[in-house]
Amino acid sequence: MRNQFTGQVAAAFQDIDVLLIPVWPTRMPTAAEWMEMAQGDIADLLRYSGPFNLTGMPALTMNGGFDQRGAPVGFQLVGKHLSEDLLLRVGHAFQSITDWHTRHPALA
């Protein structure tokens, strides 16, 4: 099943160079929310990263800003197999026109 899924995802990337998708389905959890989630099912949190971990496709997670609480808002760039060089070039281009990667959230 894993090989079949990997093939289906690879086929979807035939016409895609880089896919930009969220890292999380929700805002970044607080420390207390993390502790609560650790006690339950975290499958929903892996919705966006899990498929690429399973297929072995490269993904680069980046900071795309901060929410109202000051927590980071991440996104990921995903590419086809063996496209790490392209992902790093795209990530570098993004960082060259933004300064999100130089900022740090306030720790309370």
Q: How does this structure look, described?
A:
It is a single chain. The chain has a 3-stranded antiparallel sheet with strand order 1-3-2, with helices on one face. The protein has one domain. A hairpin with a 5-residue loop joins strand 2 and strand 3. By secondary structure, the chain is of the alpha+beta class. The protein contains 4 helices and 3 strands, in the order αβααββα. The protein is flat, with a radius of gyration of 16 Å.
| Elements, N to C (H/E) | HEHHEEH
The helix-and-strand class reads alpha+beta
Tertiary shape: flat
> What percent of the residues sit in helical stretches (DSSP H or I)?
25-40%
Average pLDDT, to the nearest integer?
Answer: 88
The biggest sheet, with number of strands, parallel, antiparallel or mixed sense and barrel status, is: 3 strands, antiparallel
Strand content: 15-25%
Distance between the termini: 45 Å
Give the number of DSSP strands.
Answer: 3
What is the number of helical segments per DSSP (H or I, 4+ residues)?
4
Query: Largest sheet, order of strands side by side?
Result: 1-3-2
pLDDT under 50 segments (min length 5)? none
- Domain count: 1
Any idea what the radius of gyration is? 16 Å
What labels describe this entry?
108 residues; flat; single chain; 3 strands; 3-stranded antiparallel sheet; 36% helix; alpha+beta
State the gist of this model:
This protein has 4 helices and 3 strands, in the order αβααββα. With 108 residues, it is of the alpha+beta class. The chain has one domain.
